[in-house]
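Weekly structure sync, notes
Attendees: PL, DS, HV (note-taker this week)

Item 1: DUF538 domain-containing protein
DS walked through the input record. Source organism listed as Arabis alpina. Sequence as pasted into the shared doc:
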Amino acid sequence: MSLLPISIIFFFFVAPSFTTAATNSDSPTAYSLLQSYNFPVGILPKGVISYDLDKSTGKFHAYFNNSCSFALQGSYQLDYKSTISGYISENKLTKLTGVKVKVLFLWLNIVEVIRKDDELEFSVGITSANFGIEEFYESPQCGCGFDCNGFEKLTRNNFVSSS
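Item 1 (cont.): predicted structure, written out as tokens:
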């Protein structure tokens, strides 16, 4: 007996229940997906071209054409790899990979983001920083962050001490 018919049955009937992939205009965007888990769109920079999500586990990947870096004047430098991943659930992003922040002279991986009421807590493992949700209503742009038109939104440097 050939495995081909079993593979076709799995692909068309079983696999769609495990994974949602946003590659066409009918699928929600990565930004609207964030909102469905109670996160603001601005924790992802503009430019996500696709994503996949395993709804049963919350495991996700978000894809950019290239890596994405930008500085927030008077604050941080951020770097997103071309693929970021982690686990998403209501008010939590955990086991994140592919996102780094420069604090003083060190690059640290952002490993977790938790929403608590109207604040977001960003953890780099050894320390964390809280920011008001209103600072993330808009997505930054690769290359220029929020300073693309001479306007800067996020100017605090909160990662210097442990919480």
